[in-house]
Structure formats: C-alpha cells, structure tokens
Amino acid sequence: MSPTAAAATNTTTAVDTANGSADSAADARPPLPVLGHVTFLGAGPGDPGLLTLRAVEALARADLLVADQLVLEVVRAHARAGVDTAEPAVAEGELSTSAAATKLCTASARTGKRVVRAIAGDPGLDPQAAAEMLACAQAGIPFEVVPGVAAAVGVPAYAGVPLSGNVRFIDAVTASGSCWSEVGASDATVVVSTTLQTVAANAAELVSAGRKPDTPLTVTVAGTTTRQRTWTATLATIAAELKATKALPTPEGPIAAIAVVGEPTTQRELLSWFETKALFGWKVLVPRTKEQAVSLSDQLRSYGAVPHEVPTIAVEPPRTPQQMERAVKGLVTGRYEWIAFTSVNAVKAVREKFEEYGLDARAFAGIKVAAVGEQTARALVDFGVKPDLVPSGEQSAAGLLEDWPPYDPVFDPIDRVFLPRADIATETLVAGLVELGWEVDDVTAYRTVRASPPPAETREAIKGGGFDAVLFTSSSTVRNLVGIAGKPHNVTVIACIGPATAKTAEEHGLRVDVMAPEPSVQALAQALADFGVRRREAALAAGDPVTRPSERRPGSRRRARV
Description:
Rossmann fold; 5-stranded parallel beta sheet
C-alpha cells in the first residue's frame, strides 16, 4: 500500500471513529420533543356559512377542537369524523377560561396533535386570543392564525345596516369614559359591541357625551343566525322599546348584542334581506333521515328555516334474501339490459350486496343505469356509477317513465330490467315499463319499518306546537309520524307532497295548508316558502306583527287551505 493510500485509510478510520463517538453521544441525548401546532381560527359571528375556505381546510386536518359549545356547533361539521373536542370550562376560583384553553392547547400540541382553537368572530380582534397566542410563542409551540368575520362587521350586514364612510367601533365592556366622550362628540357611525341588558345605558352615555337623543340606532342579538332579532329605535327610546317588546330576559347572564348608531340604520327597512326571508326562523319538521333529507334541508335553510330531521321509517334487509342474491348474480352474468334505482336506499342495498360478494362498480359495465332523481343519482356517483338516465322533468316514477325508451328488439339485445325496491313501493314504474315492452324483475331490496319514537323533547314540541311547519312526503310519513310521536298541534302548518298524502293527513285529523304543485320534495319546499311569503305580506298589509305560526295563540289561525 502506498503512503498516500495508507494515510487516506488512516484518515477514514479516524473519521469513522469520530462519527461513531458522535453517534453514541447523540444516542445518549434525550429525544427532541414531537411538536404539533395550534391554529387560532375565526369562527365568525354564528352563521357556519361565513367560515373561510382556509378555516375549512384547517378543520379537516384537526386532531382536537378547542372551543366553547356555541362555537363548536359552528365548526364541528367541517371536522373529520371522530375528531376530539374540548370545551375549556373551569371551576370557579381556578384558572380563567382562556388560561384553561392555553394549557389544553399547549399540552396537546406537545404530543404532536394539530389543535384548532376556534374563537367566535375574528381571533385578531380578541384580546384573550392574543394572550393565548403569546403563551404559545413563549412555550415554543408553532401556531398560525386564520382570520374570521368579526361580529361588529358581519352582524350589521345581516341586519341590513351598511357600514361605510366614517365608522367607529367600541367595546362597551372595556370602554372608558373618554372613549364614550370621543365617539359621542363625533358624527361617525358607531358600532357598539355590548349586551342586551346594558344597551340602554350605553345609549344614555352617548347622549350625555353629546349625541342627539333622536339619533337612530339598531340593536341586534343572535346576529347571522336564524334566531337573529333586530330592534329599531333612537337613543332616547331604545329602553322603552325593549321594555315594550319584552325583550329583556330574566337574569340568565348577559346576551351579546351589536348596536349601530347613526344615519345608516334608517335604510334598514329597505335593506333587511336576512330577517325577511320567506321562512326566517321557522322550525320545520322533516320526517326523513338526515341522509335522505340533505338536499331538502339545505333548500329550507336557503329560505331562512331551521330544519329538524325526524326519521319515521327504518330500513331493514328483506326477510328472504335469495331473490336479491339471484338478481345481483344475474346482473353480473348479463341477464339485464337496465337497472333502475328509485331511491338512495335501493342504491345502498345493492352496494352492500356487491361488497358482500367482493364486487365494485365495474360490475355495471355494459348495463344501462337509471335513477329516479338527482339525489339518487348522487348516491350512484358516490358508488362510482354515472347513471345513463335521470328524468329531465318531474323526479318521480312517472317522470322516469316519460323519458324511458320503449323496448326495441333491434337495438336492445336483452329485454329485461332489474328493479330493486322497497317492499311497500307502488306499481307505477313496473306497469309503465311493461307497457313499454320490457320484462321486469321487481325485487324487494329492503324493507321499511316504523322507526323508533324520537326523544321526548321532540315529541312534546310536535304535539305542543313547537314546530312551525311539517313536510309530509308520502302517506307513510303521515301514518308513521302520528304513530311514533303523536299528531302535530293545530298551529303547525301542514304541507303535503300530493293529493294522496293530503288525503291521508286529513284522515288523521290534520288540516292541510300547503300542497306541492308537483310531486317532488323541491316543489314542496318551494310551496311552503311561497306560503310564508303570502303570510308575511298579509300580516304587513293588515298592520299586524310578522310572527311565526308557533308564536300565535292556539285557535287564531285561519282555516283556509292555501
């Protein structure tokens, strides 16, 4: 070996020895802590629709949500299933709520968790959130901030009070006397974050500071939610207005409110877009499961209603599964030209049977697929199947038959249709397909049975007039709801999807107020909204207050069908 090579070898050995010593020293050191991070997320003033896209992304990745109960209700829907939640409530005399939240967030982040600390409004404007951020920084915990819509901005927008020009914001809880004097002496529009119990005192402060007593103002509680309520008055009359409308509650803690003082409040009558929605604040009973009612409930929310889903039927497998098993095997072996799905439950039943046999959507290759409506079509797409036929008009068996092609022996190598349905389905589709020349295998894919009774609170609300309206989408929903929960109170608006359902409702002693112009749940929801608009217009024309049906005294409603 040359001297140069020997030197190189010796050098390498020395380096390896040094590295080995370094590795041993590293192994002896304690492992670095695993750090997660904390996201301070603005949940907005109450409407879940005001969450930002960035907020939705952060919630989808969260391991732990930390917030009070009201804020959790806003953000929970966007978190992944099974996410942990924690409300930083503490016992009297212990840490403050904010300190408890800080302790919880930092401890969880140190274990590697992705923590979302959800704050009402915008965390950048919340002094407690700022203190929690500082605590994370001092503890070496990585954090980020996702801004939200501040209540002082979002609530006036929902109350129909535009904020533009010279606007001043004041927090009545922390404001000093000099703050009141400054805004009172100005001509700016003033947005006051306050409580319903102290707003009259705040108005008096502004008058004492120089504002004219006849300066208009609005006061809004539960802003941006379907519980929102706004009073319009002046600085001098707001105390009497709240007293006259019995707005001030018994002592149950402060009720957050946003007051706007100044000229922009005079435009509210024209710009109040939220509280004047067709069904604003109406509690509407939807006798369907959450899965069935998704699109219907979304439509009702767009009208300002608060949907409450109550299942009236439960789905169970057929008593004799052999027929379904033979049909699915026939589907795979080429027995059918078409398969027609008339409900989401039918899609679910076939999908479960496929999974039982180790099949997937590829088994539909070469078979035409029909869906009775958009909701059923979406369930098929989720399964990986794009339907070939969805009714272009009415979403029903009759609508499906309108678009269904007659059997043609030249173009259709097979003349048979697989129809997986409920045990109580009507014969409309079968008869129509036979008339079009098709052979139909009408197979019971699932049974419908009466669901268990809803909670006692819901039953009492149904019988006691706690709901403003109920939507009946079939005769079976009428029979089953009355059977498991009792008959709706006579102040409740009864809306039916068609004549047969209306007849069943009347046979059960219910007065039908609304009938859908066509047999679809979308048309039914629209018909109820139209009813709400006419009812509101009639109240305004008569000079009566606009109230929800559940707020009226029993026996005071008109009996005419609309």
